[in-house]
Amino acid sequence: xxxxxxxxxxxxxxxxFLMIKIGGKIGAxxxxxxxxxxxxxxxxxxxIQGIQTLKSGIVNMYxxxxxxxELLSGASIAFAALLLIIPGFFSDLIxxxxxxxxxRNLFFRIIFKNKNINxxxxxxxxxxxxxxxxIIDKKKDDL
Length: 143
Hints:
The chain is mostly helical. The chain has a domain at about 35-120. About 70% of the residues lie in helices and about 0% in strands. The protein has 5 helices and no strands. The protein has helices spanning about 1-25, 30-60, 70-85, 90-100, 100-110. The longest helix is centred in the first third of the chain and has 35 residues, at about 30-60. It is elongated and about 90 Å long. The mean pLDDT is about 85.
């Protein structure tokens, strides 16, 4: 119940509070222009980061590596774009932080409690003692 209250009541209240405070300092029209500007710039940078992540994922797939980091980055970039479309300054701040690769890695470390998220791409070393072969039977079937 507390998480529900925080997300659906607290965050919009924080966004409205920030809009009122910033609007009082720079003016209502400038606040509206700033909201549209951050959305446009954020979507532009999300597009660039998304394309770079897609290229990196394709390179990893060609190298027979699982693109786990790229999948996580792509999902976080999509979430960042959603946050940047939503009007508000707090959501824009979180969205821009998710677009920056350094802070995105920091978020991943906090979430996964892993020192280096890039280790997810590495395959464990398993010694494979299997030899592939084919059995050929030279006898013809007697019918």
